[in-house]
Design goal:
Helix content is 37%, strand content 20%. The chain is α/β, with parallel strands linked by helices and 280 residues long. The chain has two domains: 172 residues, Rossmann fold, CATH 3.40.50; 93 residues, Pantoate-beta-alanine ligase, C-terminal domain (Pantoate--beta-alanine Ligase, Chain: A,domain 2, 2-Layer Sandwich), CATH 3.30.1300. It has a six-stranded parallel beta sheet, with helices on both faces. A three-stranded antiparallel beta sheet has the order 7-8-9. Strand 2, helix 2 and strand 3 form a beta-alpha-beta unit. Helix 6 crosses helix 7 and helix 9 packs antiparallel against helix 10. The radius of gyration is 19 Å and the shape is globular. The N and C termini lie far apart (39 Å). The structure holds adenosine monophosphate.
Length: 280
């Protein structure tokens, strides 16, 4: 496994490969969810392909009062996880390498980005699209793999790839969870023991809403109400949003169907957790 911190180094190594290139963009602090992405990338690339993992805590996707400074950086452990998952190259640039002082070009997806997390985190998806397009340009992957946990991110990047005619196939994998249902996240380590104990309520609420849908409840307002009620049993939870939306456009729906996603963001203390469930 190779490691490079420079754009020119990453370009050179990627250009030198003959097989398909598969990219897994991450911000590091890797956990079993990221590892599942890397293993999927390895399967897609095949024995002759080239699996690239980027590890970059992207400053442009953090708001001014968010956790950029304290976001966990665990490169040594990340490197070991990547090696175990069959990664060929880690691209680990500095912020200065990615964003020169006079950097002034951004990518703005203007529809899907404005909803859900985009409404609570203005500028977040602009930062995500900008860095992902840069990574696509540097690595030139045939395939990029993302996690369904960041459902809106998948939808926004899907739009960007379509709208800008990028010759890259996107693949997603299901969310990897703790045994009690909590979605793995680099931010889970911020949770106090009390918050951690209550956090699985989110998954329970989403599963109950899906069960209600399967039992015939299609009214989005009722499904939402059920979720709010269950989440309110966790005294430390503070809801940012719960939305019942179309899984592609992310526009809110009045009646749920099999193309519906229920997505939520909930604070436990200062830690903001997201999760979602598809009704299909
Ligand atoms: P991050 O490092 O949090 O920016 O995430 C990098 C990639 O890992 C994104 O495609 C995420 O959707 C994906 N990811 C994060 N958490 C999980 C999880 N629990 N299961 C599967 N994929 C995940």
């Amino acid at each position: 496994m190779k490691i490079t911190r420079t754009i020119s180094g990453a370009r050179r190594l990627c250009k030198a490969t003959a097989g398909p290139i598969v990219l897994v963009p991450t911000m590091g602090a890797l956990h079993a969810g990221h590892e599942a992405l890397c293993r999927q990338a390895r399967r897609i690339a095949g024995p002759n392909g080239f699996v690239v993992v980027s590890i970059f805590v992207n400053p442009t996707q953090f708001g001014p009062n968010e956790d950029l400074a304290k976001y966990p950086r665990t490169f040594d452990a990340d490197r070991a996880r990547c090696a175990a998952a069959g990664v060929d190259l880690i691209f680990h640039p500095s912020a200065a390498e990615m964003y020169p002082a006079d950097f002034s070009t951004f990518v703005d997806e203007t529809a899907v980005s404005s909803l859900l997390c985009g409404a609570s985190r203005p500028g977040h998806f602009r930062g995500v699209c900008t860095v992902v397009l840069k990574l696509f340009s540097i690595i030139a992957p045939d395939v990029a793999v993302f996690g369904e946990k960041d459902f809106q991110q998948c939808a926004v990047i899907g739009r960007m790839v379509r709208d800008l005619d990028l010759p890259i196939r996107l693949r997603t994998i299901p969310t990897v969870r703790e045994s009690d249902g909590l979605a793995l996240s680099s931010r889970n380590r911020y949770l106090t023991p009390e918050e951690r104990a209550q956090a699985p309520t989110l998954r329970r609420a989403l599963l109950e809403a899906k069960a209600a849908f399967r039992a015939g409840e299609t009214r989005a307002a009722q499904l939402r109400k059920r979720i709010l009620k269950i989440v309110s049993t966790a005294p430390l939870a503070r809801i940012d949003y719960v939305e019942v939306a179309h899984s592609q456009s992310l526009q809110p729906v009045r009646l749920a169907d099999r193309a519906t996603v229920i997505a939520l963001a909930v604070f436990f203390g200062k830690t903001r957790l997201i999760d979602n469930i598809l009704l299909k």
